[in-house]
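Kindly inspect this one:
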Amino acid sequence: MTPSIRVALVEDNARLREQLAQFIAAAPGFACVGACADAATALATLPAAAPEVVLMDIRLPGMSGVECVARLKARLPEVKVVMLTAYDDSETILQALENGASGYLLKRTPPADLLRSIQEVQNGGAPMNSHIARLVVQSFHRRGSSPRSCENLTTREEEVLRLVAQGFINKEIAESLGISLETVRQHLKNCYAKLHVRTRTEAAMKVFR
């Protein structure tokens, strides 16, 4: 039997937090291991709960979700964080991704899509709804590439990161480029080493900024 994906929530709206916690806990293949009302509680309790995926609100009392991502990733480097918020400001999105978030979804995302997104990020994807993905790609284009970050990457590695930046998962990248899934993983591993990062999103953000 496949182990359940361990999910935690950081959301200050009590009603929404309870609804999400109950929904995730009841869904086959998922387990809710924490539901926090603010960043301070999340930082104090989530390391011990060891979630694999965290759904993080942007606007939290006290410390923002954007700052909480960076601090949580420092304590749990392997955790995947998906920003779940009502706001779709591109600069906020980019800041959250730069701080280590792996995806970004609006709170109005249908429940079934939310579960699929949790599975996607757990499998190495970068879930974003189409509107968010367009904002991020447009920002990448406006900012252009950083020659210093790109200089040691091969053309194929840059192609892989461009697809990562557009929200493609590994399987889709392999199909798009006509290469094997294992080759995609190896390219990403090489990118991490060359760019001194730990995640696919950090790699894409370091190059396309």
Observations:
- The mean pLDDT is 84.
- Strands lie at 5-10, 30-36, 53-56, 80-85, 103-106.
